[in-house]
Amino acid sequence: MARFSFFKASTTTLAVVAGLFGLLGEAAPLKRATASITALSMTQIQSFRPFSFYAAMAYCEPSQILAKSCGQNCDANPTFEPVASGGDGIDVQFWYVGIDPTLQSVIDYFLTICDRVPLLTDGDFFLTKLNSTLFPGISSSIEVHSGFADEHAKTATSVLAAVKTALQKSGLKKVTMVGHSLGAALSLLESVYLPLFLPSDITFKMIGYGLPRVRFVAFYIQWPPLISDWVDFEKVGNQAFASYIDSTVDLDHVNNKEDFVPTLPGIFLGFHHPQGEKHIQDDNSWLDCPGDDNSDSKCTTGDVSNIFEGELSDHDGPYDIVTMGGSTCASS
What we know:
This protein is an alpha/beta fold and about 325 residues long. It has helices at about 10-25, 40-45, 50-55, 60-65, 70-75, 145-170, 180-195, 240-250, 300-305; strands spanning about 5, 40, 80-85, 95-100, 105-110, 125-130, 145, 175-180, 205-210, 215, 250-255, 270, 275-280, 285-290.
């Protein structure tokens, strides 16, 4: 089994180290899209808006969410009914579950903040099989980032209980999982976990923002440590995991302009995005980029070919009119 080490650092240091990887260049995507790139209508763009606000809302303290006193993020979805919220934003990622009768969905959200929350206490991780108790019946060929698996396990049963309560209380038959950045990666695990414990008539949707690459394709890499601590580059799982996601999860992931986080880790390391990219252009129009890692210059992979062509400031948005981050959590 391959083992990796990454050094934990501030966002600035992340940009420098990622830049070293970017200088090596990107290998050609393994699968090119055959469908055409199409523009989203304003109506389609605005349909993401409620979920974008839900993504931003998870940067707020659980007490703010439960009291619906998180400013514009709470105000944007006035019919939202919080059911449960937890985490401390340091050792345990923020999460919340609630009911949106307007969207006819139970909302499930995770947040992990890369420069505040070390996912791995010692900076090391490896690919590990999914916990058979939390993921019964899942093929043993599926392996995931051990740090993400450990973080998911901390809240899995609490989140499941809250989702069951929300479904029972509301009578709804749909669960929507929303995540930004590392939270989007964790939501991928949730999108595999929840359906195993909920009735078959429940449908699931995931919407991610600034999602890092998740596919580990074709080979494992033994990466020798060059310095004592290394940055976690947000990998989720192996090819079997990625294939499972592609075949079972209804997924949209939105990338903003020249945000370079979705280009990490590099394709040359064997990592690829799942399908479903929506790429926000410099003129704020949105394009649907078909296939995995579409190399057209209008899509993230073609637009940001190395770290020096990217802008970290684009990572928090705005996604349409919504910017991620705790600064938007002030009470109105």
